[in-house]
Amino acid sequence: MMELVCPAGTPAALRAAVEAGAHAVYCGFADETNARNFPGLNFSPEELAEAVGFAHARGAKVLVAINTFPRAGAEPLWHRALANAEAAAVDAVILADIGLLAHAAERHPALRRHLSVQAAAANPDAINLYASAFGVRRVVLPRILTVDEIAAINREIDVETEVFVFGGLCVMAEGRCSLSSYATGQSPNMNGVCSPASHVVYAEEGGDLAARLGGFTIHRTPKSAPAPYPTLCKGCFTSADQTGHIFEDPVSLDATHLIPQLAKAGVSALKIEGRQRSRAYVSQVVRAFRAAVEAQAAGLPLPESALARLTEGQAATAGAYAKTWR
Amino acid sequence: MDLTVGPNFFFWPAEAVRGFYSMLADAPVSRVVLGELVCSKRLPFWQGEIPGAVETLLAAGKTVAITSLALITLKRERKLTAELADLGLPIEINDLSALAQVPDGQPFWVGPLVNVYNEGTLRWLIRRGARRVCLPPELTLDAIAVLARLGREEGVPIEVWGHGRLPLAISGRCYHARLHDRTKDSCQFVCGEDADGRDVETLDGQAFLAVNGVQTLSQSTASMAYKIETLAEAGVDSLRLSPQSSGFARICAAYAERQSGKIDGSALADILRPLAPGQRLSDGFPAGPAGAHWSGGRA
Q1: Sign of the alpha-carbon dihedral angle for A76, A81, A82, A83
Q2: B2-166+221-287: what CATH class?
Q3: CATH superfamily label, A3-169+251-322
Q4: What is the pLDDT of residues A235-258, one digit of tens each?
Q5: B76 touches chain A (CB under 8 A)
Q6: Which of A178, A199, A236 to mutate against chain B (most B CBs within 10 Å)?
């Protein structure tokens, strides 16, 4: 069966994910060492150790994302995170930075290493390089590849692949995007945040709600309509005589229907985005996906009804997987 | 501190490429990185210009390196990357996977699109054979200082982004094609219509970004005009100037005058502003508070 890797922004969400059937949960420490460094989220070293005990007692794994790029002059913060993860007996760490991978391979050789999507390893050469240089055992693939490309990659590598199937969608190569820091000074790579709420300002103007990020207008919606969060790359902009979502519509990723094809492409694990999501959301999504991977493993059709509900009322796309981008 | 000209991000006609590199032969720059960075589909249209440009630049006493693509996904692109090693020039890797194609022991350069954020990464790359490193534009002055110091200790020159629209993101999707309701595979090379990228404004008309095929750039032209002394004190060895379609000879000359102390930051900014596409400058990545910000010389 493909492994279902589920988000846990808090200890409560972790317990909910495990109880809903997650094979593995991923989480991070409450600081800038992880790419979901949001206020009120994440784990202290003590909470992590406790969570690992809870998960292991129920047969689930815990993966810890230490996937920002350590700040020059401040590497010890990231090194401590690695040591704390190992001390908590986690099943793997998810890393992106070369220097941190080298440190982990040297100082924590027994700690299993996964390559974060933030490393944007998008071809077999990159993946094999990370595998041979740092002993990486699994790679989370960027969301810019088609299913065919994923299959081709799997034919040329010896490590496991994990792909995002549900939740937020980066349209840029992850870990290689400074759009957010251009507007706000805060980026996923450096600070673990993208389009941070601290830099969002809403203003009612002539019947519209304008959403600005770092002073730049990301979209305007009529006051009566639901206003999406102003994530920079999902904004509405103008270029010459055209106005629209130049990069991507405000949609989220839903590759549920591609689960059989991803299995055939040799994917080992399916990842659900959303460490910032509520416990109820995590629980519902995990339950639906567990049913789907069970069905897939048993050769049965996917339970459509369980999955259709999740994105109801919200636009979703299969992103690059379905190749419409090409 | 000297000047390095980075690879051209844009899709220019072959004759424009030829003119550009023959102009650079006479410019006060020490080295030039050339080759296709953004989109492998463009290369057949201008790759015939590369051998001549290399020869001209070498004859003029410049050091020349060849860049990898910024995002390598297709088999054809991996093969293309492997062939770069045969050119007899240093390779500047701008996608880490290009490193897999550099034979062990062969020196290489690291470009601004490789994530070098800290000492551990810089040290690993140097041990692997990096002989020059241009840092990512996103870095703060503090981070630049730490890494430049390490570069000095290790004998590896450190370069920073000196001038040009900032490479903010790269995608699997072509935004130029999308703006023309085409897919990447049927783009008809519309990115060639915009010699410095296609401007993107906010709904309130704020100058914001520029798209260049699969690449997203800042609309402002980043310039270290006011930061030269700080960068020099930090131990930075070279400023990278990123090609733009007009006024580039004047731009190179002006930065050289600034480095030699002939003009100050404000005089350089006055020269650059009218030449920049969109006439806007920024230096907020190193100086804060955000990349788009322009210090105007204020500390």
Answers
A1: positive
A2: alpha beta
A3: Aldolase class I (3.20.20.70)
A4: 999 999 999 999 988 888 888 889
A5: no
A6: A178
